[in-house]
Amino acid sequence: MRIEQLHYLLELYRTRSFSKAAENVFITQPSLSTAISGLEDELGVKLFERLRSGVYPTPMGEAVVKIASELVNCEARIYEAVRAAQPPDKIRLMTIPAISFGVLLELMTSFQKDYPEVNLELKEFPPQIITDAVVDELTNVPGTFALVPIQPKTCEEVLAQLARDNITSTHIFSDNFVAHMSGKHPLASKDVISIDDFLAYPSIELNLLTKTPDNTAYNRLYMMGNTVGRRRLKERTHIEVDSLAHVKHLMLSTGTHVVALPRLIASGDRDYESGDIIWRPFVNGDDLSVDYYLIYSSLYPLKPIEKGFLNAIVAYFDQLSIAK
């Protein structure tokens, strides 16, 4: 008997449906059916009646579910007790270099004032990827969160894979891609940039990677991807880089290169505040969106201080959404 079988048992009892239970625990319906049947075979009793109208617990099933619920609660208490015995609270926020450190530093400074006893750490994970190493750190290092951008077209598969890795995802902010350029760029005089305007100039592409469903390979996720398209790509200068610092250096040094990145990157950045670098929205910019998620391990209950940190991030980005 494995503890995950008890989790499956409780979810099947709650939903009364193999398909719904399998979906909620992120496994296939045959896998769930095999796990429940295996548990019944091991115990030598029938736990559920499978009828056309649904799945119903037998009297013995009701008794087993009650005990299973107690065991699962004990599991949660064990994890909580272990975490409570850890050293003083430490919260680590991991992020990719493409997310504005100006915004995050302001957020963490504000939180530190309210909770001076908590050690806060801001860490980049290299470079712009959600890898198994990041998932392992979220799972194995208590109090670790990661702030990641995910494009809507890949969101469902990425979040499903994270859930299978026991990672919880909380949506905190929706943003749009905009055109970033030097303040002296010929397009700087425009209020709105068309895709044709954008494609008429040398471009910079900041590479991002996102996890694929097979849990082993990683696909390159270009921030503009096929949304903007690769029209006339061979007819213009196109440079790929892997850090935001390189992007800014190219924009400032050439004065002609453009890059499409989320608007959030400009928040709290000195080069944008000084006007050396600016951004302009795209025509039909609502079609060029990205969602930011805060991800963290679901294996352990959040401590009160961690819940406070999560709520602080959500509230902070809510303010950004209002000001957007």
UniProtKB/TrEMBL annotation:
A Pfam family name for this chain? LysR_substrate
Q: Gene Ontology cellular component? A: cytosol
Give the HTH lysR-type domain ranges: 1-58
Ordered alphabetically, the record's keywords are: DNA-binding, Transcription, Transcription regulation
One Gene Ontology term of the molecular function aspect: DNA binding
Record-stated family: Belongs to the LysR transcriptional regulatory family.
Q: List the PANTHER family hit by this protein, alphabetically.
A: HTH-TYPE TRANSCRIPTIONAL REGULATOR YBHD
Q: What is this protein called?
A: DNA-binding transcriptional regulator, LysR family
Upper classification of the source organism reads: Bacteria, Bacillati, Bacillota, Clostridia, Eubacteriales
